[in-house]
Structure formats: C-alpha cells, structure tokens
C-alpha cells in the first residue's frame, strides 16, 4: 500500500505498543518531577557546598593578603597616625618607649620599628612604636 516501507506511515489507529510506551513515558515524567533523582540531589549538594567553601577560601585569601601586605598598607591607610610634626632634637628610644607606655598604661609594648632613609630621599628616619592595648 505504501512505497517507503516505514512502519509509522501506515494509516489507521496507533499500535498498542505505541500507546503503552507513551503512557510509560508520561508516568516517568510525572514521577521525575515529583521526586528529584539522586543525581539532582548530589549536584545541588555539590553546588552549594562548593560555593560555600569557595566563599570561605576567597575570604581567607583576601584577609591573608591584607596581613601579608600590612607594612605596605599602613602608611596609606593610617597616614594621619604615622605623621608627626618635625622635631629638631633626637629622642632616645627609652624615652619614646616610656612615652608610649604613659599614653597606654594598660597596654603592652609590641614592637619598635625604626625606618631609615636613603641618601637624598625625601623621607627622614622615623620610629614607630606599637603598643597592644586590651581596650582595642
């Protein structure tokens, strides 16, 4: 009756096998939409765990970089704290440390940083005294 010989080209009602296969497909689609598959659950858990851990790692990387570059960032961020009027006389380190202890009696002397200047540089030698104060 037909020249192509294809099975789907026959006129008339669909075969019984085709109706059962269609019903099975629609039932599977209904079950799949109601209950997520294990693959979907694993993918969602993997996605959210990865995003959470990734965010924590990015935060750690940023804060670690700030700590590593702190000596370079302090003059930029706290320039008003590191700028003092010029003085004509040099003060001994013991006097500087005593003045820092008097200004912060509850604190403990953390470090004394002495920066020198290169020949011909605009920056003069300076001393930075850090006191760790429990109030801060």
General description of the model:
This protein is mostly helical. The protein has two domains: 16-68; 83-132, no CATH class. Helices cover 54% and strands 11% of the residues. It contains five helices and two strands, in the order H-H-H-H-H-E-E. It has helices spanning 16-34, 38-68, 70-77, 79-82, 93-103, and strands spanning 108-115, 126-132. Strands 1-2 form a two-stranded antiparallel ribbon. The radius of gyration is 38 Å and the shape is elongated.
Please give a quick description of this structure:
The protein is mainly alpha-helical and 136 residues long. The protein is built from five helices and two strands, in the order αααααββ.
Main sheet overview: 2 strands, antiparallel
- Outline the low-pLDDT stretches: none
Q: Which strand order spans the largest sheet, edge to edge or round the barrel?
A: 1-2
Q: What would you call the quaternary organization?
A: single chain
Range of strand content = 5-15%
Strand tally is: 2
* Gap from first CA to last CA: 95 Å
């Amino acid at each position: 009756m037909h020249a192509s010989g294809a099975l789907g080209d026959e006129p008339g009602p669909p075969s019984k096998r085709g109706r059962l296969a269609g019903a099975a497909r629609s039932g599977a689609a209904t079950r799949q939409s109601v209950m997520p598959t294990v693959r979907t659950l694993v993918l969602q858990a993997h996605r959210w765990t990865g995003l959470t851990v990734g965010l924590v790692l990015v935060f750690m990387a940023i804060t670690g970089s700030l700590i590593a570059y702190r000596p370079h960032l302090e003059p930029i961020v706290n320039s008003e704290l590191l700028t003092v009027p010029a003085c004509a006389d040099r003060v001994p380190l013991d006097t500087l440390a005593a003045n820092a202890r008097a200004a912060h009696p509850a604190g403990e002397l953390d470090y004394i940083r002495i920066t020198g200047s290169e020949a011909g540089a605009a920056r003069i030698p300076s001393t930075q005294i850090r006191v760790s104060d429990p109030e801060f």
